[in-house]
Amino acid sequence: MTKPQHHEIVVIGAGICGASIANELLERGKAVCLIDAASTPASACSSHAYAIAHPHIGKGSPRLLRLTRIAFLLAEARWGLVWKAHGIFQPTKKDKEFVLEELVDYLESLGLDNTMALPLDAEEAKKICGISQSGVWLPRGASLNLQEATQQLLNNQQRLTCMWNTRVMRLENHDEKWFLYGEDQEEILSADKAVIAAAMESKCLINSIGIRLPLKPVRGQLSIFSVAPDSPWAPKLPSVGISGEGYCLPAERLGDGSYRWIVGSSFDESEDDLSPRDSSDDFNREQAKGLVQYLDGDPNGLKKSGEFVGVRCVAGDRLPIIGALNQRPGIFLATALGSRGVLWSALAAKLIAAQVLDEDLALLARFGFAADLVAALAPARFFAGALAAPSALGALASNSKPVFPSGPNTK
Ligand SMILES: Cc1cc2nc3c(=O)[nH]c(=O)nc-3n(C[C@H](O)[C@H](O)[C@H](O)COP(=O)(O)OP(=O)(O)OC[C@H]3O[C@@H](n4cnc5c(N)ncnc54)[C@H](O)[C@@H]3O)c2cc1C
C-alpha cells in the first residue's frame, strides 16, 4: 500500500464551487488536489445545464444586492466561453407600480448603469424583448451550462491532481496538518489547507471537526417543455430570459418547427428527493403562465419533454457561506450557494483564494468587496458573539454554536 500523499491545498467537492476555487488557485501558480465522491466533475447540483445569472435588483437587503452586482461582474469575466448573454427581463411585480424616475434612481443607487439594467415601460419592453409588460431589462443577463463551465475550469491544468470516487467522511488535525479520512476509516491524504465545497455534505464534514452549521436542503425541479408550432402558446414564447416568480430561458426553435422551453423551478424546503414529480411540472406550468402573462393559457399546451432535479444547499440567512473558518486554522468553507451558484461560485473563487494565499483582504477592494461584505459571507456570522463584531475580518467566534439570524427570505 502506498503512503497517503501530503498536499499544500486540497479542495473537497468538484461542483461549480470547488472547481472555481481550484481554478483560481491553479491560475495563481498553486498546486491543488481536488477530491470528489463522484467519478466526474459536476455530477450533483452543478449538473444543471440551464442556470441563469443576473445582478439582483428586487427584494433583499442592500448588502445582498451589492454582493450580487460584484459577483455578476466576476462571473461574466470568468465564464466567457460558456456564457450565453441573451439578456434577461425582470417584469414589474404585481403589487408594484412602474415609476420610471424612481426606478432610474434606484438602479443608480445599486451601481447599475444602463448597460446592466434599463427600466422599460410595456411598449418599450415589447419592442426590445417581445414582452408586453413593464420591468427592467438586464441586457447582460445570461445562462450557462454549469457542467460545461465546471469541466472547462479543470481542463489542461498541469498542477491539478484529481481524486475521483473518493468520499471524505471526516477531517482531523494533527501537528498543524489536516488529515482526511474515507469510508473505510482509511487516511486518504493530508494537507496544510483544506477547502470544503461539498454543498450539503459540508455540514457533516464540518461537524467532524466540532462545528455546527445551519444548512438545509431545498429540492428544485426545472421543466423542459415542448410546444407545438401551431399551439396558442407559440406566439407567447419569449426570445429572452425572464426572471420573476420563477424563471425561464429564451424559447428555442427546433428543426421540426416545435419549440423547446425551459421553465423553473419548484422550491421544496427541507426536501432532498431527486425523483421527478408531476406536481413540480404542474407548478412550473403555472409559473410559465405568470412569466409571459398568459394567465388563461391551457397548461396542457406545455408538453413535458424532460427535467432537471437538484438539491440546493441553503443557509439559515440565505446568503452563501464563504470564508476561512477562524476557529479551525487551515479550513476554508464555500457552501450554501442556494439558487445562485453561478454568482456565488465566481465570488468564492476570489475570496477563498485570497484567504488561502494569505493575501491582505484589503486588496479585494478592487472588486468592490468592503469589509462588511466579506463579514456578511463569513462562517463566523453564525456563531454567538460574531454578529456584534465590527468586522468579521478579525472576528474570532467565541464558540461553535450556530445562531440562526432572521434574514430576509430571498430566493
Ligand atoms: C432546480 C434548480 C435550479 C437552479 N437554478 C439556478 C440558476 O438559475 N442560477 C444559478 O446560479 N444557480 C441555480 N441553481 C443552483 C446551482 O445549481 C447550485 O448553487 C450549484 O450547482 C451548487 O454548486 P456546488 O459546487 O456548491 O455544489 P454541487 O454541485 O452539489 O457539488 C458538490 C460536490 O461535492 C461532492 N461531495 C459531496 N460530499 C462529498 C464528500 N463527503 N467527499 C467528497 N466529495 C463530496 C459531490 O459529489 C459534488 O460533486 C439551481 C439549483 C436547482 C436545484
How would you explain this protein's 3D organization?
It contains nine helices and 20 strands. It has 411 residues and is an alpha+beta fold. The chain folds into two domains: 1-87 and 144-213 and 317-411, FAD/NAD(P)-binding domain; 89-143 and 217-315, 2-Layer Sandwich (D-Amino Acid Oxidase, Chain A, domain 2), CATH 3.30.9. Strands 4, 5, 6, 12, 13, 14, 15, 16, 17 and 18 form a ten-stranded mixed beta sheet that branches. Strands 1, 2, 8, 9, 10, 11, 19 and 20 form an eight-stranded mixed beta sheet that branches. The chain has a two-stranded antiparallel sheet with strand order 3-7. β1, α1 (16-27) and β2 (32-35) form a beta-alpha-beta unit. α1 (16-27) packs parallel to α5, α1 crosses α8 and α2 (62-78) packs across α8 (341-356). The longest helix is centred in the N-terminal third of the chain and has 17 residues, at 62-78. It is globular and about 65 Å long. It starts with a strand and ends in a 34-residue tail after the last helix. Mean pLDDT is 91; it is low at 386-411. Bound molecules: flavin-adenine dinucleotide. Flavin-adenine dinucleotide binds at residues 12-18, 35-38, 43-46, 48, 51-53, 146, 167-168, 197-199, 201, 205, 220-222, 264-265, 310, 312, 337, 339-343.
Quaternary organisation of the protein chains? single chain
The helix content, as a percent range, equals: 10-25%
What is the rounded Rg? Answer: 22 Å
Largest sheet descriptor? 10 strands, mixed
Strand content: 25-35%
**CATH-derived topology of the largest domain:** FAD/NAD(P)-binding domain
- Taken from the alpha-carbon principal axes, the silhouette is globular
CATH architecture of the largest domain: 3-Layer(bba) Sandwich
> Can you identify the CATH superfamily of the largest domain?
FAD/NAD(P)-binding domain
User: Termini separation (Å)?
Assistant: 48 Å
Q: Give the rounded overall mean pLDDT.
A: 91
Number of domains: 2
User: What small molecules does this complex bind?
Assistant: flavin-adenine dinucleotide
CATH class of the largest domain: Alpha Beta
Order of helices and strands: EHEEHEHEHEEHEEEEHEEEEEEHEEEHH
Number of strands: 20
| Individual helix count | 9
Q: Which class do the helix and strand fractions yield?
A: alpha+beta
Task: Point out poorly predicted stretches.
Answer: 386-411
